[in-house]
């Protein structure tokens, strides 16, 4: 694979600026979609520069300099020549050592001809007359540019040895992955190119240009009917874009996706997560540390007259942590409560149906495990303190949102009850559990949380989630493992499809 040859990309200013900006005093702004394009190119591993025609207004020139500086791009002039524009000498020099792409919405036949003669690939956006210019590829909208660029790079420097990975996830997650270098457009060492799929364009045509899709389907949930949770995906409403992807996958069962939707649905339901974790007892061996699921009970209301009896049957005693059965995808999925006595259920606001779970004293320490393909990583994070430090004097339950702020004890109480806990996590045992869960779930990338119970030393897995950010793992090891996992999953699924 010829990925040793660098890729240089030049964006003409006409591609980025609103065409309505006229004159020195005119307000200058980016075209719709230009900011997203620049943001994604910033961490693309491509050499990017913005070109401009000499004679631009001061406002335009100053605005472009600000844009290029904020994204760490180059800024180069196109030189006037016989009424046309000719390439900067630097651009001609690049063509000798690099694969070069010029993208514009301003068609200049002389410029394009000279670039073409120097082996540049030219893409014109939104200008129909460019179809008549030899050597120019035309696309209709700015949102098509990244996928077009990815397919050109694949053809130019990698061929069949490069995979184009289309991805779908919310912007904050995408930016985190991109900032860490996980989403290059220049091929990774494993020959992977990452490109976002746009919900503003027909998805079927985009999906036909990528080799596989990486997704965080839970980012695209619009609504969940909690009464259907045991039968997911029944009762789930997705965004229009994700619904189109789901239909495409149903019509193309051999298309590779990381990971199949059906493998992820169980992680949307805390009751199903509990049923999965209960199977950890299959790993139990005499004389080893106990690895288990938390004791739990599903309830459909908090006013059951026999709740005491049901709690005893489930091996549960107070305090209890109360969680909605729906694990994600709705606004209140992370609204929880810590309940210290049965009377506190009377005015509890946690959504129903709910899962009552034992609260495990774990010394404010939680172990975050990440399974990325065949590799397992872990990190230690501060967590909720022991229950004795949290019990309110008011006799009310302690409510909180687990994604925002976890309950903490005052520093005074922590100092009063501080105990040195010499216990640490048994990584060999938990890695064995990770492999077991990977086989059981059929997922490429997932995470789970482990707490070590004070007193017994039991290792209790309290949560499972799909495609976590694994931000506690150093990028230098996490990102290559991420690429390896995607490549291995693709090759495995392609092999199965061909047999």
Automatic annotation (TrEMBL):
One function term, GO molecular function aspect? inositol-1,3,4-trisphosphate 5-kinase activity
Key words of the record: ATP-binding, Kinase, Magnesium, Metal-binding, Nucleotide-binding, Transferase
All copies of domain Inositol 1,3,4-trisphosphate 5/6-kinase ATP-grasp, residue ranges: 294-475
Q: What is the official name of this protein in its record?
A: Inositol-tetrakisphosphate 1-kinase 6
Q: Which Pfam families match?
A: Ins134_P3_kin (PF05770)
List the EC numbers from the record: 2.7.1.159
Catalytic reactions on record? 1D-myo-inositol 1,3,4-trisphosphate + ATP = 1D-myo-inositol 1,3,4,6-tetrakisphosphate + ADP + H(+); 1D-myo-inositol 3,4,5,6-tetrakisphosphate + ATP = 1D-myo-inositol 1,3,4,5,6-pentakisphosphate + ADP + H(+); 1D-myo-inositol 1,3,4-trisphosphate + ATP = 1D-myo-inositol 1,3,4,5-tetrakisphosphate + ADP + H(+)
Entry similarity comment: Belongs to the ITPK1 family.
Quaternary form?
Answer: Monomer.
Question: From which source organism is this entry?
Answer: Urochloa decumbens
Q: What class of enzyme is it?
A: transferase
Cofactor dependence: Mg(2+)
Instruction: Read off the InterPro entries from this record.
Output: Inositol_tetrakis-P_1-kinase (IPR008656), InsP(3)kin_ATP-grasp (IPR040464)
- Describe the task this protein carries out: Kinase that can phosphorylate various inositol polyphosphate such as Ins(3,4,5,6)P4 or Ins(1,3,4)P3 and participates in phytic acid biosynthesis in developing seeds. Phytic acid is the primary storage form of phosphorus in cereal grains and other plant seeds.
